[in-house]
Amino acid sequence: MIRVLLVDDQPLIRSGFRALLDLEDDIEVVAEAADGQEGLALVKEQLPDVALIDIQMPVMDGIEATRRIAADPALACVHVVILTNYGMDEYVLDALRAGAAGFLVKDIVPEDLLHGVRVAARGDALLAPAITRRLMDRYLTQPPPTRADRGLEELTGRERQAVALAAQGLSNDEIAGRLVISPSTAKTHINRAMAKLNARDRAQLVVLAYESGLVTPRNS
């Protein structure tokens, strides 16, 4: 059973998401919160598998709540998915750096919401295609990085290829298809790259890949 916490200051959003999630046999909404501070307290109390957290909220915003969750070793099992709008692109990098596993837009279709919750619960990165595209476009306007992050030189050629494909939003199965390897081998490459780059999760690996210069929008 996937245990989900909803954190959003809009009751209508929370009730709508809850109605969809509660219909699923493998998903249970364990609690709701109206701001980040309340949400953080409930995360510590409930230890959900997935916390769906809005970015803009009173008292404590979603980015700060995510940062505090990611910084607490006792909450390592909690995967934060940020709820956002298409016009909120400026917050994407801040939330990923804070430790978010990915994003879902609030006008998402029900099937994609359910898929997103299940993907996040597995520990995979979750970036809506539109947000991934804008994230990549944003890097086009930035100067190239001046240094590579420590550990980058330790990546094997296959690991670099796998990271480059992960940065495009591909799943392990899709990476396996591109590289003509098994999904388990693709997962191993990604996990080893995360360990070498000290990435908390797959989403942070994508950010590090761009910021280090290992991956750029032009070669993705």
UniProtKB/TrEMBL annotation:
Domain of life: Bacteria
Keyword Cytoplasm carried by entry: no
Pfam families named among the record's database cross-references: GerE, Response_reg
Gene Ontology terms describing biological process: phosphorelay signal transduction system; regulation of DNA-templated transcription
Record keywords: DNA-binding, Phosphoprotein, Transcription, Transcription regulation
MF terms (GO), sorted A to Z: DNA binding
Positions of modified residues (4-aspartylphosphate): 54
Membrane spanning residue stretches: none
SUPFAM superfamilies hit by this protein: C-terminal effector domain of the bipartite response regulators, CheY-like
CDD domains: LuxR_C_like, REC_NarL-like
HTH luxR-type domain span: 148-213
Ranges for domain Response regulatory: 3-121
Family annotation (Gene3D superfamilies): 3.40.50.2300
Protein name according to UniProt: Response regulator transcription factor
Organism: Streptomyces griseicoloratus
